[in-house]
Amino acid sequence: MAFPTNRLRRLRKNENIRRLVRETHLSVDNLIYPIFVEDGVNIIKEIPSMPGIFRYSIDNLSKELDEVVELNIPAILLFGIPSHKDEIGSDTFNDEGIIQRAIRYIKQNYPQLYVITDVCFCEYTSHGHCGVLHNHDVDNDATLENTKKQVISHAKAGADMVAPSGMMDGVVKAIREALDSAGYYDIPIMSYSAKYASSYYGPFREAADSTPAFGDRRTYQMDIGNRLEALREVALDIEEGADIVMVKPALAYLDIIREIKDSFNIPLAAYNVSGEYSMIKAAGKLGWIDEKKVMLETITAIKRAGADIIITYFAKEIAKMIK
Ligand code: PBG
Ligand code: ZN
Fold first, then answer.
1. How far is CA 293 from CA 216, 245, 281, 296, in A?
2. Nearest Cα residue to atom 5 of ligand 1
3. Where do the domains of the chain lie?
4. Which parts of the chain register pLDDT below 50?
5. From residue 2, how far is each of 5, 10, 11, 68, 101 by CA, in Å?
C-alpha cells in the first residue's frame, strides 16, 4: 500500500499549529472606516440597505467617533451630504461646506484620528454625476479645475489625506500641483485608481444621495471586463504622484488586487463597497449564512489577495472581533 509521505494535514491538526502556519492575519491597523456626515442638526438616520450604518449631523458625530477611537481604528474616510446641491457641486469647495465643517470639528475634538476625505462631486451636484456637465457628459478638464479648489478647501480645513474618486484623467497631477503650490506638500493622495462602473455601489448611492439623474457612470468609471486597463490606470496615477492606489470594488476584483500588488511597489488599498456589505448583512439577517464568519472570510480574502489597506463598513465589527 502506497501511503502518502507528504501529509499537509499534519499542519492543520489543531488551532495551535494552524495559528503557527497561518499566512494572513487581520489587524485593525489596516482598516479605514467610512463615515457619512449630513448637513443639519440632530440627525442619526440608519441607511435602510446598510443596517448598522448611519448618516450623522456634526452634532451627533461623537456617537460614532468615540467608538472608532476606542476601537483603535486609525483612519476614517469622510463623505458629505450637503443641504444644497447645484449644477457644479459648489459646496465641495465652500470653506463653510459640510465636509469642511466636519473636518474642523473632528480635528478639534479627535486630534488622534486620521481624516481622509473622499474627493468627488456626485453627492453635491443636482444631476448626481461626478463633475461638471457638458453635452450630457462629465467635462474632464473643467472638473479638474473644481477638484483643485475642493482639495485646497479640504486641506485648509485640516484633512490629513485626500482620496479622489471621480475617475477623471489627470486628477492626481492636478491635485498634487494644487496642494504643493499652496504649501500642502505633506498631504498624501490616495487615488481610486482602478474604480469600476459597478452595480455594487447601489446602497452607497442611497446612503449618500448620489444616484445619477440620467445615464450612468460608464464614460468615466472602468469597464468591468478590463484587467490590463487597470494596470495602465495605476501606472499613470503613480507617475502623477499618487501615494496610495486603490482597487474598487474589492470582492469581485480580487484578481486585479493581486495583479496590481505583484506589478507595483506602492501601498495598495481595496474598497469593500456598500453592496458587498449589504449582501452579507441581508443573507445574515435571513439566517442563510453565518454573517460574522462570512465577514471575516471576505476581509481575509481581500487581504490575502494583496490589499495593504481595506476600506470597509465592517471596520468596527472586525475591530471588536479581533480585539
Ligand atoms: C463617489 C463614490 C462612490 C463610492 C465611493 N465614492 C459611488 C459611486 O461612484 O457611485 C462607492 C462606495 C460604496 O459603494 O461603498 N464617487
Ligand atoms: Zn462621484
1. 34, 28, 12, 5
2. 165
3. 25-322
4. none
5. 9, 18, 21, 56, 72
Is 233 annotated in a binding site? The answer is: yes
Query: pLDDT tens-digit profile of 114-126?
Result: 999 999 999 999 9
Cell representation of residue 233: 490606470
Catalytic positions, written as ranges: 195, 248
C-alpha grid cell for residue 35? 463615515
Rounded distance between C-alpha atoms, residue 298 and residue 292, angstroms: 10
What does the mean pLDDT of the chain come to? 98
Task: Give the number of whichever ligand sits closest to the CA of residue 197.
Answer: 1
CA–CA gap between residue 282 and residue 47 (Å, rounded): 13
Residue 57 known to bind ligand: no
184: which 3 cell numbers? 500642502
The confidence score (pLDDT) of residue 1 equals 75
Q: What is the whole-number distance in angstroms between the Cα of residue 201 and the centre of ligand 1?
A: 6
Domain 25-322 of CATH type 3.40.50.2020: no
